[in-house]
Structures are given as structure tokens and as C-alpha cells.
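Anyone opening a protein record will find just a pair of labelled lines. A complete record is shown below as an example:
=====
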Amino acid sequence: MSAPIDDFFAVIPAGGIGSRLWPLSRAESPKFLHDLTGSGASLLRATWDRLLPLAGRENIGVVTGRAHGDKVEESLPDIVAENVFIEQDQRDSAAAICLAAAILRGRNPDAIIGSFAADHVIGRQRVFEFTVRQAVAAAREGYIATIGIQPSEPAVGFGYIKTGEELVIDDAPLAALVERFVEKPDLATARSYFADRSYLWNAGMFISRADVLLKELAANEPELHDGLVEIADAWDTGDRDEVVARVWPGLKKIAIDYAVAEPAADKGLLAVIPGQFDWDDVGDFASLWNLIAPGRHDTVTVIGDNENVLDDAASGLVVSQTDRVVAMIGVENVIVVDTPDALLVTTPEHAQRVKGAVSSLHDRGRDSVL
């Protein structure tokens, strides 16, 4: 399983600020540039390392914003320069992924592309590789493939995929059709999904022939498709800057789930491969605490300098980025994030609401701390 797949190109969308991880994650230093797990590598670098055996160095690209291009290349010194695709500004995942697909189709009409977020944490590498190779096999048969994660709990923070009829595809023994996508459920619904076992977490990984992906985009969002193709046709020429400046601001902001995946599922063109590997999207500080201290929530877990944290009859997560002493006494299940210009105090139950605080700060003109 160690040989890269010849016609496979891995695309890493690296955008967004990870607002639920504020104030650790900021616009200039989003979460994918941080080492959140103590591995010694940023999440982006860990994603690159994970994809290297599948695609090889020359077939991994990153789609990112202008503010992060230099930091991406610093984090990934082995990346081929022409495989760093810079967006003028964010236009959501359909534009990011399908721009890469259109560029790569121009370079290789037979390319199969896979999209893998820069900020996910994945364990059991060999199982991950086996799953991706099944998705590539499904893509060769003309399907758009996605990877769904077998739930380990009735989570309310993820969207779900309802699996349908099994498919018969050589080299993809676990492939099935996607019956439908469902949005993030309430707890009672999540419990019913967890008991059902035919529901998988939607991890946002998509694998497809580039031409198939673009054909589906053209059918559902023709103006977005035409704009991206115009940009892609000029990408490797001297006209790139002029065309991007003219076309990009008018592109529709829409997620690839809505622009491509859900319509493809309705047509019977979307396959899903269940992923049995460990997966986390580190969506908030509660999931980060669970990730780095699973089953150990009766003590204080520290990210940063342990010498700065004092605790007595306390439990929680402390992210320490200053020389300030943080003392936790007689409190339970508390999350403290201490940075030079902002302090966050919350609980796991309310960790998802951090995004609302970021919105409020933006409305108040406090962008300097965002």
C-alpha cells in the first residue's frame, strides 16, 4: 500500500480561521498552522504527511488565501510551488476545490482529485490509506466518492450521511450509494442515528475524477463553473492576475456539499466509503480536550507551559500562551485560553458558542484581536 497512486492528486483546502478555537486560532494564524496535538507538527504538515504515501510529493496541492501562502510554503518546504493555489479571497469550498480540479484537469485530463481538509486529526494511517484507495477505485467508475466516519458517539456537532444500497466495485468492497445528507441533529436524533449504524459522520472528504466533478458543478452552478474554468484556463499563463482580478470577486459563495455532493446523491452518482480510522475535526475546545486527554477529564490538562498553571480540586483545559500564572481552584470542567491580548473562559457545554463571541467582536470593530 506504500506506492503512490499514479493518477491521484490530493488537494488540501487550507482556509478559514477556525473561529470556535479563538483566541488560539486567528485570521493571521488559523488552526491548521498550529500543533494542537503535541506531535511537533502543524495540522497542515500532518495532513501532508498523511497524504504523501497516497499521492507522492509532486501530486499534493494546497488551496489557501493570500495571507497564508508564505506560511503554507514554510510549513511544507517540499511542496511544488505551482501546486500552491492562492485564492484572491474566500469563496467557500466549492470554489476552492473546483478551482483546483479545473487547473489539474488542464494539466492532466485523466486526473482523479481528492479533497482533504488541512485541520483534521486522523489516526490509524494504514486504515486511512485503504479507505482512500477504495474511494479512488469508486471515482474511476465515474462516481463522486466521499468518506464517511463511523460514529463513536451520538455527536450533535457533525452533519451525517445516510448510506444506501451497496455497490459492486472492484477494489472498493465497502462502497455504497449515498441515500441522503442530513444536517447537524439534536441529541435525540443523533442517538437514533448512532443506534441505526447506517448513518456516518460527514467528514467533508471528496474524491472524484476532475472532469466528473466539474461536469456536476456545471449542471448545478453553471455560472460558478464557467468562472472557475476561465480562471483555470489562464492559471498557468501570463494572464492569470488579470483574469483572477476580473472574475473571482463575482464567484458565488457556496459549499461543495450543496453545489455538487447533494445533487449528485439525488442522481445516484455519489458513493460513500465508511472510514474505520480515528477522526476528529477539532471543531472547538471541547473536542480538543477530548482529543488530547480522552477519558481524563477529572484533572487539568495544559497546552503550553505547565509551570504557569496551578490547580487545586479543579478540572479542565488550559491553553497557556503567556507568562501569566493561571490558578484554578475548586472549579470543574472549565476551559481557559490565555493569550497576550485576549482571555477566554468557557465550558465544554458552551464551547460551540465561541464563534458567536468572534462575531460580536467583529461587530464591535475589535478585528485587531481576531
In short: The CA atoms of residues 128 and 274 lie 10 Å apart. The longest helix spans residues 92-107.
